[in-house]
Amino acid sequence: MPDDGSDGSAGANLEADPTDPPVGDATELVNCGLEEYDPQFSSRISVKHVVDVTARFSDYKKWLVNEIGFGGMLKLPMVQKLNLKFSAAVMAMVDADSHAICIPINKVLKFWAEDVHKVFGIPCGNRDVNGRDGNISQDSINFMKSSLGMDKAGAHGLRAAKEFLNRDINEESSKLETDCFQIVFVIFVMGHLLAPSTKYDYCQIDFWGALANTENIAQFNWCDYVLQAALDGVAKLKLDMSSKRRSINLVGCHLFLQVFLLDNLDLALFNMKHDVLPRASAFDQVVLRRMITMAADKGRTPTSCSIPSPLRHAINVCYSRSKFVGIENIELDRPIGGWHTEPSAHTTTTRRPGLQSTFCDAVQFQPPPYLPGR
After folding, report:
1. Is residue 264 one of the residues assigned to a domain?
2. What pTM, to 2 d.p., does this model score?
3. pLDDT (tens digit, 9 = 90+) per residue, 280-331?
4. 107: burial class by Cβ within 10 Å (0-12, 13-18, 19+)?
5. 360 inside domain
6. 232: which of 126, 196, 226, 252 is 20 to 30 A away, CA to CA?
7. Are both 213 and 240 inside the same structural domain?
8. CB within 8 Å of 273: residues ≥ 6 apart
9. Considering the domain boundaries, does residue 36 fall inside one?
10. Cβ proximity of 171 and 352 under 8 Å
């Protein structure tokens, strides 16, 4: 049963195969009395591009990736295509203010930045990627671009990033080369998977400051950055659907929302133990297809679905809601917008003793001192 999906290439709108699970938006945005409304979805997200590159990494390159806390990206299974109608359905259920997937009827599934760490195994530190800790001057950005070869036409091209990652980087490489490799890797996975934009072969880089010192990359909260990008994608989808656009490009990491929802639904024999991290490593093409088929029922229109399955009990999952046993019942009695407290989450990474960051030294980047309680 082929998926309605995208592998991030070409950029054409991709239609669902008639044999796909008939899933789509589950809110009144779609129904609106217009049962003929059936938008076509596309997306630049591509697990395939990431896996194709990381599968060829040497042990040394994998070590460099683990050093910056992005080792979870090395454990992704091959997923050729994603079911974009199911992505749109889940995104339409998201309430951005309360950080929750609101499943009709009366099921509210909260998520936190720490849950992105559970799914993808990327850093969830205590420094804000776009906050004070990530401040950097334009001169410093220009120096970094020059060092990475990204100061020319197509500077933000993901193809150029792929070519850099395929270079021969080994134990004999200079500190500058290994720093560049680590920085380009973050840009590459952000552009293809964690925060894809609407443009082909392009990554919107507004996180230079968090990359300037490779020793500090793992101290930033990349999970929150990815989550905010996904919520921006939710807002865009809802605006496009309310405008009844026929072609809609899904932005942000909707794969996170798919995995998180499916992993929290009680699908009986399809339930998986949460003993493997990151959770995305357990969701290959076959697993995703089967669980989506099991989870989603056809709705009134070609682009609507329902999720009849109950949520798994919080004590049986590895996600943040397990720290708030009973939150589902409490949520049903609260208006959307409550429960904003986020559990703390920190990741650590092995430091390379005695080495100073080339970029940190070159641009005289001085991150603000750590303030307890931030």
Report:
1. yes
2. 0.80
3. 999 999 999 999 999 998 665 545 678 999 999 999 999 999 998 754 444 4
4. buried
5. no
6. 126
7. no
8. none
9. yes
10. no
